[in-house]
Specification:
The complex is a heterodimer of chains A (293) and B (437).
Chain A: H1 2-35, H2 53-59, H3 62-94, H4 100-112, H5 115-125, H6 131-140, H7 150-178, H8 182-190, H9 195-206, H10 208-221, H11 227-232, H12 244-254, H13 258-289
Chain B: H1 2-21, E1 36-42, H2 46-62, E2 66-72, H3 79-88, E3 95-99, H4 101-109, H5 122-128, H6 132-135, E4 148-154, E5 156-159, H7 161-166, H8 176-189, E6 196-197, H9 213-220, E7 227-228, E8 231-232, H10 236-251, E9 255-256, H11 263-266, E10 271-274, H12 278-285, E11 296-298, E12 313-322, H13 328-341, H14 345-355, H15 371-376, H16 379-386, E13 390-391, H17 399-415, H18 421-436
The chains are: A mainly alpha (293), B alpha/beta (437).
Pfam families (chain B): SBP_bac_8
Signal peptide (chain B): 1-19
Keywords (chain B): Signal
Chain lengths: 293, 437
């Protein structure tokens, strides 16, 4: 009887999440899957079933091909930068004698900021007539078209993302650092471990659970890049920053091809799922080597 | 029993909530006391919104059976996207302003618009407003009129004559070789200035091609169509000429496509497209910019050998549409309202005065009623004179994809020096023809 009541209570407490997920995730997912086999244009009252045509068409377009590769390019640039920056912040903050929380909140604030506002500030900062650009041009002879070059545009977007997520990941890493027992360091010192070896041989392996979390989050974030790209580059130059989300948006809301955009969304979901699965396995192998799994 | 009742109540609650989320109004827009309410979304431009609010109030005083709610189209993220979202969500207004021919083609293709020519009274508007010729190119491939054009901006290019004179260019260049020559002189005098400084030059967003490529292409091709029905009919020679002109400007370091704030106004660039809506902003923000004193406007430059005085340009024209989702009562009330507005010339004069946008009429350059507007802002006369030379945008429902290809495959790449003009044209043509199939 008690078990039955507990079950009911469990369902009751879980119901808001279950209803929310059904209405806003599962329902749209099924609807999107259905739409991906149609030629619906978002506003027309009628549409036809087109089989796998949307999928075969998507495979041959430069927009979808670029979305696939650009995501991995963002990973290569963004993940190491944000991991190094958040680790650096976490180590520095942990070493502070006091006001750790204040500093952590300070670093966390960009995570709460609007991507639109951040992008517009960066756009102004990199403007041809901005003080920074004028200085680079007149003093150093460097006339850089930051958003006009394939790599530089990708790098700028990755840096905004890194700025935004560093504080959040640093928070996770700081709690990981705090959980490492001081006695391990003391024992290592007695065994003759040098200061320079402490980080690589002790801290980093023991930080595995926190690093695993931040890496999965940061790899996942690269599949959802939209605001910064939309505001700064529009996916250009020449598709160099055309992410999955940007391509889905362009097809659904600019070209009015909701069915086709749904097919791309399904492809993006499959690519995300497989990529994260592979990355997880690689990270787990690293964890296994350090005795974590 | 108790358990079944609890489940039933829970399910009822859930479905009531969900039904509430998706409820759709099915009323006719007419209340019990016979008042029909029209939702009118005006352009997201304060002067246009103010004009329509004033006109709607005037109309309500003479027609108490109609209530017109005027609000600006939300730009989240664009006015087109807001309209699409409203239609998809079942909350489309009765009518909206600011609809281009290309976007109307998309909407008409989705059966979202009412063919205006099928509504009684539409022809009276065309006749009374003296716009028979103006509306002709607005006819769609299916023979219907879905848009009533409100204004027509024949887009012109502006020249900073003050800076050009300092560089030794005393006459505004009108042909390609004159422009290249002017660029050389400008760079010799001011290495940090550019002939054409505009971030949009490297941006593939479809509508941006109206204000660079199509202005030049219409001039170079003498108004030759680009797309006709579902066929690409672009004039290759004119197209390659335009791209070569842009390429030559790049080679002379005359182009700047980096992000830069108001380059023409700030003197970073000396040449740019200018619409008549610009002048009210300048009057407040850049009062030092005076027509004939430090800037001039002209039709687009043309390839050598063509007559620049009669060059064609792009018509940035927008109009009103009525949505198919509106009730018959609302549609009838909307057309009556439009008929009332355009039955009196003074309403077009007020629109022109308040917005600087030339009304889409055949007689805007000749009708005496518009004279006070030209006296107040003489530069607008140049726009009125250019109306016969202005070619409206394509009416293909895929205009967005097609115009994106112009940028992605040709124009943007030429601006960045990544492709030669002929290859760019060929790639663009191939992409467009592939999309049209």
């Amino acid at each position: 009887m008690i078990e039955k009541n507990n079950n009911r209570l469990g369902w009751l407490f879980a119901s808001p999440y279950l209803i929310f997920s059904t209405v806003f995730f599962l329902g749209p997912l099924i609807w999107s899957l259905y739409l991906s086999f149609t030629n619906w244009d978002l506003i027309s009252p009628t549409y036809d079933f087109v089989g796998f045509k949307n999928f075969t068409k998507a495979l041959g377009t430069p927009g979808v091909r670029s979305a696939f590769w650009v995501t991995y390019k963002f990973m290569i640039v963004f993940v190491p930068i944000v991991t190094a920056m958040s680790l650096f912040v976490a180590v520095i903050v942990k070493g502070l004698p006091k006001l750790k929380t204040v500093f952590l909140i300070g670093f966390f604030l960009p995570y709460l900021s609007s991507g639109v506002v951040a992008s517009l500030i960066v756009k102004g900062f990199l403007s041809h007539t901005s003080p920074v650009q004028t200085f680079l041009r007149e003093r150093l002879g460097l006339d850089i078209d930051w958003l006009g070059g394939s790599f530089s545009a990708l790098f700028v977007v990755a840096m905004i993302m890194a700025w935004k997520f560093t504080g959040y990941y640093a928070l996770i890493l700081t709690s990981g650092l705090e959980s490492i027992d001081q006695e391990v360091y003391e024992a290592a010192a007695i065994d003759g471990v040098k200061d320079s070896q402490r980080f690589w041989k002790i801290t980093l392996p023991l930080l595995y659970p926190a690093i695993y979390t931040t890496l999965i989050l940061s790899f996942g974030a690269t599949f959802g890049i939209f605001t910064e790209v939309y505001q700064l580059t529009g996916g250009g130059p020449n598709y160099a920053t055309n992410t999955w989300q940007m391509e889905i948006y362009s097809q659904a809301f600019k070209n009015l091809q909701a069915g086709y955009a749904s097919a791309i969304a399904i492809m993006a979901a499959v690519a995300t799922f497989i990529s994260i699965f592979v990355i997880r396995k690689i990270l787990e192998m690293w964890g296994k080597r350090n005795g974590w799994v | 029993m108790k358990k079944k009742l609890a489940v039933l109540i829970s399910l009822t609650l859930v479905f009531t909530i969900l039904a509430g989320c998706g409820s759709k109004s099915n009323n006719s827009g007419t209340s019990a006391d016979g008042v029909t309410t029209i939702e009118f979304w005006a352009a997201p431009n304060p002067t246009q919104q103010a004009y329509w609010q004033k006109i709607a109030k005037e109309y309500e005083t003479v027609n108490p059976k109609v209530k017109i709610n005027v609000s600006a189209i939300k730009e989240s993220p664009t006015s087109e996207a807001s309209i699409q979202a409203a239609i998809a969500g079942g909350s489309a207004p009765t009518m909206t302003e600011n609809i281009s021919r290309g976007f109307a083609a998309q909407l008409a293709n989705s059966k979202a618009l009412v063919p205006l020519d099928t509504i009684a009274g539409f022809n009276d508007i065309v006749t009374k407003r003296n716009m028979t010729k103006t509306i002709e190119p607005w006819e769609f491939a299916d023979g219907h009129q879905y848009v009533l054009p409100i204004y027509s901006n024949a887009m012109l290019f502006g020249w900073r004559t003050d800076i050009l004179k300092e560089a030794g260019v005393n006459e505004v260049p009108r042909t390609y070789s004159e422009v290249i020559e002017a660029t050389k002189k400008l760079k010799a005098k001011y290495p940090d200035k550019y002939l054409w400084a505009k971030p949009d030059l490297a941006d593939p967003t479809s509508w941006k091609r109206w204000f660079d490529f199509f202005m030049l292409y219409n001039a170079a091709s003498d108004g030759n169509k680009f797309i006709e029905g579902s066929n690409f009919v672009g004039d290759e020679k004119a197209g390659v000429d335009v791209l070569s002109f842009v390429d030559n400007l790049r080679k002379e370091k005359g182009l700047l496509s980096q992000n830069v704030t108001e380059p023409f106004e700030n003197g970073v660039g000396v040449f740019t497209d200018i619409g008549p809506w610009t002048f009210s902003t300048w009057a407040e923000k850049y009062p030092e910019l005076q027509y004939k004193k430090n800037f001039e406007v002209t039709l687009p430059p043309v390839p050598d050998g063509m007559d620049p005085a009669n060059a064609k340009t792009f018509a940035d024209a927008k109009g009103i549409v009525i949505y198919a989702s509106a009730s018959p009562e609302q549609q009838a009330a909307a057309i009556e309202f439009i008929k009332w507005v355009y039955s009196d010339d003074k309403n077009d004069v007020a629109f022109f005065q308040e917005t600087n946008l030339p009304p889409a009429r055949d007689d805007v350059g000749t009708n005496e009623v518009f004279k006070p507007v030209f006296e107040k802002t003489p530069v607008l006369l140049e726009y009125a004179k250019a109306i016969p030379n202005a070619v409206p945008s394509m009416d293909n429902p895929k205009f967005n994809e097609l115009q994106t290809f112009i940028g992605q495959e040709a124009f943007n790449k030429v601006v960045r020096g990544e492709i030669d003009p002929k290859t760019g044209w060929d790639n663009m043509k191939k992409a467009i023809e592939g999309e049209l199939q």
